[in-house]
Amino acid sequence: MKRKMIVLLILALAICSLPGATAEKKLTVISGWSGPEMDAFMPVLKAFEKETGIRVDYQIYRAEDLAVLLPAQFNAKTTPGDVIYMWSWFITKHAKDGHVLEMTGSLKDADFIPGALDAVKVDNKLWGGVYTGKVKPGFWYRKSFFKKHGLSEPKTWDEFVALCAKLQKISGVKAPIASGNGVGWPLSDITEHFIATYAGPQVTYGLIDKKVKWTDPVVKSVFTDRIVPLLKAGYFSEPIEWTMALDLWWRGDYGLYFMGSWITGMVDNPDDLGVFSLPGCEGIVFAPDYAFVPAYTKYPAEARKLLAFLSTKGQEIQVSTGGHIATYKVPLNAYPPVDRGVASLLKGVVALPDLDDTIGGEWQAAFWDQLKLLWVSPGRVNEVLENLQRKAN
Predict the structure, then answer these.
(1) How far is residue 283 from each of residues 161, 194, 196, 208, 390, measured CA to CA in Å?
(2) Which of 43-47, 249-253, 348-352, 369-373 has the lowest mean pLDDT?
(3) I want to staple 128 with a disulfide (CB 3.0 to 4.6 A). Which of 142, 207, 239, 292 is the partner?
(4) Using the 8-state DSSP alphabet, how is residue 132 labeled?
């Protein structure tokens, strides 16, 4: 018996040494998702395993920890994972240093919402993949509230203003629109949506790149012709801590509330939610998750295949669980009802980066402060724009 076992072991070793014979390939995916987020992601990895026969392990690392760990690993020409979810700027930075495998040809722009892959491109070459994300689509309302008061979603600017006027006249409504506030970011989200709609996505990019000034007539008109008249008419409430504003809006103190898609997990009955973008909207802020294949993976072909799967078929699996919006053009019927309306708003629009988050630093803090000033003193709009431009210089 012992002799037979030795013969079988020798035979197995001989087979493994034959040309083309390799050990089972196993890939490692790294992201910061844990708990319920991880639980929702695991079926996606299982689907890849079933389709390809390639095993996949999952490890949890925070992006902040990876920012320290990965450069040291890369310098040693090693990597802890084969597909790693990380900030887009980190991916492009290390792509320039030769630490990232190119994905050009593995993913096609036409299969994604416009602009979704731009954040991981350098010199028109693609260095990563894009996953699902969180969207800031527009103004939320309760369907039951709109039905009760005979209201409908506006299709033009004049209809939007008319809707605000109707809301203002409803008994018990303190203001048509709840102005969420914290350190200032909910007001910035509203403002960025107005800029993207009435100045256009290219102006958003221009403000980020400092090629367009805040005092530019096109930018100024968004404030003076759109936002300020609404503020002066009392259509926005005074700034309220954003979670408190959410509760007050839900109980009917306000008719509309501008917030990101995460709102679906913060209300008692998400099926009662409706949402619309400003009429004529051409760009919506979308914050997706990005991933890349390190140059030091042992299995480059398989790792590229996994990243391509996650960016395409994987998204369709992920959105079916709820709480995610795809950057890939998945069918609308793949979404639960509450997410389907959000996803439909992305059709035909540009996926934009968050303006103030992208610029960051002292300017972001100034932006938040100046918007709070504008909300309570709309007549000081020129001063606000001049202050923003000074900070941008």
Answers:
(1) 21, 10, 6, 14, 26
(2) 348-352
(3) 292
(4) E
339, pLDDT greater than 90? no
The dihedral formed by the CA atoms of 52, 57, 62 and 65, expressed in degrees to the nearest 10: -110
Longest dimension (CA), the chain: 94
- Tracing tokens 């495998």 back to the chain, one arrives at 101
Average pLDDT over the chain, rounded to an integer = 91
Continuous H helices in the chain: 2-16, 35-52, 63-75, 88-96, 143-148, 157-168, 185-198, 201-208, 217-222, 228-232, 242-250, 300-311, 313-319, 337-345, 355-359, 361-376, 381-392
Average pLDDT over every residue of 92-105: 96
User: Domains of the chain (ranges plus CATH)?
Assistant: 24-134+287-345 (3.40.190.10), 136-286+350-392 (3.40.190.10)
pTM of the predicted structure, to 2 decimals:
0.73
Residue 190: name the closest of 391, 392, 367, 326 by CA: 367
Tokens for 232? 């002066």
Structure-token match 């395409």, residue found: 312
Of the candidates 326, 303, 334, the one whose C-alpha atom is nearest the C-alpha of residue 52 is 303
Asked if residue 292 lies in contact with residue 101, where contact means CB atoms within 8 angstroms, the answer is yes
Contact (CB, 8 A) for 30 and 1: no
